[in-house]
Automatic annotation (TrEMBL):
PANTHER family: CONTACTIN-ASSOCIATED PROTEIN-LIKE 4, PIKACHURIN-LIKE PROTEIN. It comes from Labrus bergylta (ballan wrasse). The keyword Disulfide bond applies. Residues 494-531, 907-945 form the EGF-like domain. InterPro entries: ConA-like_dom_sf (IPR013320), EGF (IPR000742), FA58C (IPR000421), Fibrinogen-like_C (IPR036056), Fibrinogen_a/b/g_C_dom (IPR002181), Galactose-bd-like_sf (IPR008979), Laminin_G (IPR001791), Neurexin-related_CASP (IPR050372). This is Contactin-associated protein-like 4. Belongs to the neurexin family.
């Protein structure tokens, strides 16, 4: 009858494990075939309703199981489930990785497949349930289990008066470490499990609340003192199965373990010298009164192997040890709790019930638990009324619907999908139907119930009657304590997918029966498990997304544990600065105070310690201004003497520093001492001269190891007449070492290797690449069976593939344009327990869901290959940059320096980022990045997109003088102007923007050496622009509606309008490659400009451009206008576009020499006088000498 193998090799025994086959019980539907020498178990019917149960005789620690097919047959299992129980009634399924329930079986009848349990199981009964078997045979099995004897001390608490108290002796030496462990099981979801109390009523409690274990901090012994929650761990702990609890207290923290999950909890500082006086088990008991504090329900259940600092407390109370007292029972009563699981759409339970008489009553009662908000619980027929009763969940509330009885509806309860047990009672008495949920009455209806068959949850598959059709969602959950008739159904298979929570970074976990969901709102992270940061890792990264200066959240370690921080990114043309403020960046005065010899100042930064350290560490350069203004207040003394003042800087509280801004660490000098320019050569700081006049020592602190400044101590501020002021500026850093860390792979066989990528539950990989090759592997890491790989499969396809034990999966993103264009492209791949995703540049993200109950741990054990594979094939040729794995940047450049075939760095960024430079800005390459050269643009800013604007008054003008043309200066020693150095120049470009309420007004005037000019004016009625031009000194002036302004070479009418002046805003004025307004405002000392009247730089242009609709209800000339002029030789064309209330005039003025122009005719434009502004057709312009410069007026 034994199912173990007959050969001696089957007995794989040693000193600590042996074969456990003490007795075997065969249940219904089992058939043992022993004929013809065959051995093993084979049921008469091969289906999934069979099982084999083994009674080991006593509770045993089971470490492994082994299976074999039936001897000499084609019968074997290919997969199966294992379940364990202490009583044979309440079963629990064994799961690998908390998810996988099935075990791999055999592939023939003779080989032995052994599976070592990841976590040993302590149980008396084992049940094996076949899932799949050889399709050409039957279910067949020989089974062996391995393990060790298990002994324990057990006690039970009744939840009313039972408790155990252990008092520590007054002379007991206290330690900074306490350890406690136990096993517990209960059916009650709330109750005090453990309370530890010290001096002054300071204590810690472990309490069950709604099936979770809470760690509470208590201060004081009064019932009114509200405990403070420190941690919550575990879930569904009221399932009547043993759970392991371990509690380890150290000076500053404690480790709390429930089953396989451990949480580190930081405890308040007063616990560092905490002396334990008393330990209470099962209740909170005051040491003074020796009475239980009934603030919570007491624990009702069983405890096993209760250990405290190596003492077995259950054994001590058995032997009546004087320090331990208790009212407990040394056994564990096992209530027979009948539960049933409804796992899916095909699950149902049909029960028969007696018929209720007209004088009697019928009650239906049960308990249920679920994670789903909706589902049908039960239905039955009202035989006399001919209607149907439906009891179902909807929106987590219980609803009762009676069909064919005026369509009555009732609902009761709320939030019934919390995974807790909820009781339901349906009672019919004297023609009245009532419903109660968790002892709270709902509604009732006048009806007498005559019950026949009552299906719970669903309907039989073969049932086709009208009354059993389910118009509601299917119930997925558990039921127990059915009051109609107990059935021999033995387990509740509910599983808490949110304990421990797979949601990272504070994401909130919710769940249904089959899946969980993470709410990542306000966490700063995204994805199925809130794993990936939604923020960039530096200001440098924001710049390369096209952002300009402003406040941004940066996440320095991406998906790592450091939270995002808010910083200011100051993006200038040359450098991108990250600015982190503290609580006092202003110049602060210090005056003597009576009895105060030193003044100490502490600086609090806007970010946390770990954020500061990481931000400084990844920056290429950091600096902080430190200045001291003094009058008879010495600073550092001499390098040989003791300093009067000092500061602390660096990580944590900082280290003492005795040098000042601009000097070297450890020098005890200021900047003037380093440069030899102090006011007193005998001292190394200006303030150390101790003069009555105000002096200053200031400079930049640039050594990152000493930053940021944490505190400042000023020591010479107490003498009469001493005065001082200090300033510690904001921390400023620039450069991102991680963002530009790159390597170039010049052949397919080249690669870099790094240690194994350990990311069992969550893995994210991000990097940038550029290549001219059509394919190649970016990254690969292998395990025994598992792997992860990211590759360029074709010139337009990126593939992310991996295997965690469920078979290979792929996620693909295809681009509509080739990716081998030698431009930077960004790849972000993520894999977690819920899904895998792949992002490529700005394309839509591609996702692949993970199996709900599959393997989810990625187990890798080989080296990580970058730019190649372990087989040295399909390598990548090109550049990889900013490679990060789970927020950690791999140093590609350092590894590339020692690796043949790979070069550190990767130049050539303007091909990818050059488009960010706008408005004729020029992209300039750098070793790490690029910058936009705005010297040829009328704009400024990091991307040449910041408008340069000015407010003009009536007497304001700007005159820009050009050098004369090469033809006029060929006999002089002066160098020709750069704008005329190209003798093939055929034209000039002019553009400007303006906003004004004035009319008429001259906006713009340009004149040549040959009495030619071009003017742009606003006409008299303010309804349009006029262009007045004269391109041939022998011809009369011509007018085209549109307009401009002034110089000495004007006709009288134009001069009259110019004399009025211009009041308004002008912006982004550009003439060919010259920006006169920008030169006047930003470089007035080095540019050939003459400014008349007040000229104020303003943002009047940019604000209008940002909101072109701001003035749509005002006069149209108060809106902002952008004007470009196009004048063609021989043809003058002006195109007018009206946008909202703005006018756009585009023109181009092709300027040629006087001799050439006289031989040509102006064609295609009809000479016309303006009706709004009368011009004289006979213009007598002043003669202009060829020595006079060409002028450009605004």
């Amino acid at each position: 009858l034994a199912l173990q193998r007959s050969d001696s090799s089957s007995h794989q025994t040693d000193t600590d494990s042996f074969s456990l086959m003490k007795s075997i019980e065969f249940f219904i539907n089992l058939f043992l075939s022993l004929s013809a020498g065959a051995g093993g178990w084979s049921p008469l019917t091969s289906d999934r309703y069979q099982w084999l149960e083994v009674d080991l005789g006593e509770r045993t620690k089971i470490t492994a199981v082994a299976t074999q097919g039936r001897y000499g047959s084609s019968d074997w299992l290919t997969s199966y489930l294992l379940m364990f129980s202490d009583t044979g009634h309440n079963w629990k399924q064994y799961r690998q990785e908390d998810s996988i329930g099935s075990f791999p079986g055999n592939n023939n009848a003779d080989s032995v497949v052994q599976y070592k349990l990841q976590q040993p199981v302590i149980a008396r009964f084992l049940r094996l349930i076949p899932l799949d078997w050889n399709p050409n045979g039957r279910i067949g099995l020989r089974l062996e289990t391995y393990g060790c004897p298990f002994t324990s001390d057990v006690m039970s608490l009744d939840g009313v008066s039972s408790s155990l108290v252990f008092k520590l002796s007054p002379g007991t030496r206290q330690t900074s470490r306490d350890v406690m462990s136990l096993q517990f099981k209960t059916l009650r979801n709330s109750g005090t499990l453990l309370h530890i109390e010290g001096e002054g009523g300071l204590g810690l409690s472990l309490e069950l609340e709604r099936g979770k274990l809470l760690l509470l901090l208590r201060k004081g012994r009064t019932p009114s003192s509200e405990p403070r929650r420190l941690a919550s761990i575990g879930s569904l702990l009221d399932d009547q199965h043993w759970h392991h609890l371990a509690f380890e207290r150290r000076s500053s923290h404690l480790n709390l373990t429930v089953d396989k999950h451990t949480e580190r909890v930081q405890i308040p500082a007063e616990f560092s010298h905490w002396d334990i006086k008393q330990l209470s088990v099962g209740a909170v008991q005051s040491p003074a009164s020796q009475k239980q504090i009934a603030s919570k329900r007491n624990f009702h259940g069983c405890l096993e192997n209760l250990q405290f600092n190596g003492l077995n407390l259950i054994e001590l109370v058995k032997h009546k040890y004087h320090q331990v007292t208790g009212n407990v029972t040394f056994s564990c009563a096992e209530p027979v709790s009948v539960a049933v699981t409804f796992p899916g759409p095909q699950s149902f339970l049909q029960l028969a019930a007696a018929t209720a008489s007209s004088s009697g009553g019928v009650s239906i009662g049960f308990q249920f638990r679920t994670w789903n908000k909706a589902g049908l619980l039960l239905t039955f027929e009202l035989a006399r009324e001919g209607g149907m009763v439906w009891l179902y969940l909807s929106e987590a509330r219980l609803w009762l619907q009676i069909h064919k009885l005026a369509g009555f509806f009732w609902f009761a309860g709320s939030a019934l999908n919390d995974g807790q047990w909820h009781s339901v009672e349906l009672i019919s008495r004297r023609g009245r139907l009532s419903i109660a949920v968790d002892r709270e009455d709902g509604g009732s209806a006048q009806a007498i119930i005559f019950l026949s068959l009552i299906p719970f949850s669903g309907c039989p598959a073969e049932e086709d009657s009208q009354q059993c059709r389910n118009p509601f969602n299917v119930f997925q959950g558990c039921m127990r304590l059915l009051t109609l008739e107990n059935q021999n159904i033995d387990m509740c298979g509910i599983h808490d997918r949110c304990s421990p929570s797979r949601c990272e970074h504070g994401g909130l976990c919710s769940q249904s029966w089959t899946m969980f969901h993470c709410n990542c709102s306000d966490s700063g992270y995204s994805g199925a498990t809130c794993h990936s940061s939604v923020y960039e890792q530096s200001c440098e990264a924001y710049k390369h997304n096209g952002n300009t200066s402003g406040h941004f959240h940066i996440d320095v370690d991406g998906s790592g544990p450091i939270k995002p921080q808010l910083v200011y990114c100051n993006m200038t043309e040359e450098t991108t600065w990250m600015v982190i403020q503290h609580n006092n960046t202003e110049l602060t005065r210090v005056r003597p105070s009576a009895g105060v010899n030193q003044r100490s100042v502490h600086f609090d930064y806007s970010t946390r310690e770990e954020q500061l350290s990481a931000a400084i560490g990844q920056s290429e350069h950091c600096e902080q201004e430190l200045s001291y203004h003094c009058r008879k207040s010495r600073l550092l003394n001499t390098p040989e003497g003791s300093p009067f003042s000092w500061w602390f800087g660096g990580p944590g509280p900082g280290t003492l520093q005795t040098y000042w801004g601009g000097a070297q660490p450890g020098s005890q000098q200021c900047a003037c001492g380093l440069q030899g320019v102090c006011v007193d050569p005998q001292h190394y700081c200006n303030c150390d001269a101790d003069r009555i006049e105000w002096a200053e020592d200031s400079g930049l602190l640039t050594y990152k190891e000493s930053l940021p400044v944490r505190s400042l101590v000023l020591g010479d501020v107490q003498r009469p007449g001493s005065e001082a002021a200090y300033r510690v500026g904001a921390l400023r850093c620039h450069g991102d070492k991680n963002f530009w860390n790159a390597a170039f792979f010049d052949k397919e066989t080249s690669y870099l290797h790094f240690p194994t990528f350990h990311a069992e539950l969550s893995a994210d990989v991000s990097f940038l690449f550029k290549t001219t090759a059509a394919s190649g592997v970016f990254l690969e890491n292998l395990g025994i069976k598992d792997f992860i790989r990211i590759e360029l499969s074709s010139s337009t396809l990126v593939v992310f593939s991996f295997d965690v034990g469920n078979g290979p999966l792929e996620v693909q993103v295809e681009s509509s344009v080739p990716l081998n264009d030698n431009r930077w492209h960004r790849v972000r791949a993520e894999r977690n327990v819920k899904e895998a995703s792949l992002r490529l540049d700005g394309l839509p993200v591609a996702t692949q869901e993970a199996p709900a109950d599959g393997h989810f741990r990625l187990q890798l054990n080989s080296q990580l290959f970058i730019g190649g594979t372990a087989s040295r094939q399909k390598g990548f040729r090109g550049c990889i940059r900013s490679l990060q794995l789970n927020g950690v940047t791999l140093d590609l450049e350092e590894r590339a320096k020692i690796t043949p075939g790979v070069r550190p760095g990767c130049p050539g960024h303007c091909s990818s980022y050059g488009s960010l430079c706008q408005n004729q800005g020029r992209c300039v390459e750098r070793a790490n990045g690029f910058h936009c050269d705005c010297s040829l643009s009328a704009y400024t800013g990091v991307f040449c997109n910041t408008e340069v604007s000015a407010s003009f008054k009536s007497g304001t003008s700007v005159s820009y003088t050009f050098k004369e043309p090469y033809e006029l200066s060929r006999n002089s020693s002066a160098l020709p102007s750069s704008i005329y150095s190209d003798t093939t120049l055929r034209g000039e470009n002019v553009s400007l923007s303006f906003r004004t309420n004035q009319s008429p007004a001259v906006l713009f005037y340009v004149s040549s050496y040959y009495r030619e000019y071009l003017a742009l004016l606003i006409n008299k009625h303010g309804k349009g622009l006029e262009v007045r031009y004269k391109l041939d000194s022998s011809r009369e002036a011509e007018v085209l509606r549109s307009r401009v302004r002034s110089s000495d070479d004007l006709d009288p009418d134009l001069a009259r309008v110019a004399s009025i002046g211009y009041t308004g805003c002008l912006s982004v004025v550009n003439f060919n490659s010259i920006s006169p307004l920008k030169a006047a405002l930003l470089h007035p000392d080095t540019s050939p400009v003459v400014i008349t009247g007040p000229l104020l730089q303003s943002n009047c242009g940019s604000s209008a451009s940002a909101n072109p609709y701001a003035a749509e209800n005002t006069h149209h000339l108060s809106a902002f206008h952008m004007v470009s002029l196009l004048v063609l030789t021989g043809v003058i064309a002006v195109v007018i576009f009206v946008i909202v209330s703005g006018l756009v005039v585009t023109a181009r003025f092709l300027y040629r020499r006087k001799e050439t122009y006289r031989n040509q005719e102006v064609k295609g434009v009809k000479q016309e006088d303006s009706q709004d502004f009368p011009f004289n057709n006979q213009t007598d312009s002043q003669n202009v000498s060829c020595e006079n410069p060409k002028e450009y007026f605004i």
